[in-house]
Amino acid sequence: MAAQIINGKEIAAEIRSELKEKVAALTAQGRTPGLAVVLVGDNPASQVYVRQKKKACHEIGIYSEEHRLPATITQEELLALIDRLNADPKIHGILVQLPLPDGLDENEVIERIDPKKDVDGFHPISVGRLSIGLEAFVPCTPAGVLELVKRTGTAISGKKVVVLGRSNIVGKPAARLFLQENATVTICHSRTQNIEEECRQADILIVAVGRPKLVKKDWVKPGAVVIDVGINRVDGQIVGDVDFDEVKEVAGAITPVPGGVGPMTIAMLMKNTVGAVDVDH
Length: 281
Ligand code: NAP
Hints:
globular, 281 residues, Rossmann fold
């Protein structure tokens, strides 16, 4: 039986519309959520992401500010901007679009963000809180992955989850989130031996490696839920890390690329920003 195709675009639109109602209620109380997006330099992909984030804020009714800075800005000037945004009561979430141009210290910039405004969930305090199971801002892409799996109606507790990739922005937080949901979690990476065999054990397979169509049909247990985080440009087209045409023949459910995890990332950023208005951690 062919797999259920998980429509991330549709689910993200549902989430945005739920958020729109919440924002209207907050605005009626004079507490409109505010997001500041900081973009340094002229990375074309970053410019696209920032535009999408601004558009989503506008649609939902979130106040947004964009701070575009030249690549020549100094570390001190960038930190001074973060300090101003930390102190600004209109701003509940601060997002510094990564990667930063060479010469700027990303870690120092992220650590300067007030953890109460860390809507990207990259601050070490957010990472630490998530690891020990406290309420925390969760990085948007893995949060979107969990939401997609939940909305397929799949029970997660006790299931075997394999995460392919161990980056700080996707693989590791995804593994922590699914562990918190009581799954048995394996993390694979470039040095993992017998990776196909590891993947075949998965009831839920999450792939975030940045290698076009790496995961083939025979890597997947029949009926498994397959979530493809990959975004790769190949011959002018966007393809995932999973060989979709092959794998959809064996998986129980699968996300397409594009239209799967991608739209969820921005929806979860919006959710984090709305949540930041009432944050008490
Ligand atoms: P990353 O930082 O480059 O990490 C890639 C991970 O994959 C690393 O842990 C690496 O292992 C592992 N890996 C690489 N080649 C492998 C192989 N052949 N077999 C097994 N593991 C391998 O990437 P990322 O930032 O996590 O992003 C991963 C993908 O997701 C990219 O395509 C990116 O564009 C996409 N992405 C999408 C969204 C979205 O919104 N949908 C958001 C973020 C990222 P080592 O640690 O051993 O090097």
